[in-house]
Task: structure prediction
Amino acid sequence: MCANCGKGEEDSISLKSCTACKMVKYCSRDCQKAHRPQHKKECRKRAAELHDEALFKQPPQAEDCPICYLTLPSLEKGRRYQACCGKIVCSGCIFAVDEMTSGDFLCPFCRAPALSSDEEMMEREKKRVEVGDAQAIHNLACDYKQGIHGLSQDYDKALELWHRAGELGNAEAYNNIGNVYWYGRGAGRDEKKAIHFWELAAMGGNVFARYNLGVSEVKAGNIGRAVKHLMIAAGSGDNASLKKIKQMYTNGHATKDDYAKALRAHQAYLDEIKSDQRDKAAAFSDTFKYYEL
Result:
């Protein structure tokens, strides 16, 4: 029934839940406004609880490499986006194809030849943008932000494209937007907006945003929340988060058990993504610059 007037569905009244807390329902906007003074405190408390439930959930499962079917590394150095076919391929598979083709640098998925010029790179990238490829849109935004590959530097265009990529599911784009607002590079500095976009990125599985949130909570004195963020990031392969938890343990801000859990989670992640080909690729990482956008 309506939390304000008591009318319910038996009175042929259509009820709508409070969008913030989901705990109560109203039959009209007027009833919602009238009940607000009574409901406000409990609503804010429950809305905060719901937000944290979503924020501190384990990140979505990482995709598998489309060739070897092992989990893709969460960090960029272990994977590459292929603008020719729009696939993200692990560095191990790139290294294996390079060995088989004697250094021809073909795409491991579609066998397209390596990029030979900025013009060719932009042509491939824009084709992927036209079909709504979120990663390509994100990459084009990075090009505008840096003013590279023949494009003039344009922060406004970069932000516009990052927003578009984020709405299509690219968590890295939201992390970049958060960085823009946190550091005030390309837009006015706004910590509240930075945190908002970092949270969106973290919930999408971006470990850098999760680390940023952890560090910002340390600075705010919210140690418990900081440890939660850093623990998730360390378990997703982020070395910086593991080091931060170790530092907090040394300073007495995290427990020995916190650090031990972070170490175990980090090692479990490394075991999950490990392969001989990826180890070889890491040893010759300079080889893969052809695949970076």
Q: What stands out?
A: Strands lie at 16-17, 25-26, 79-82, 87-90. The longest helix spans residues 29-55. Confidence is low (pLDDT under 50) at residues 287-293.
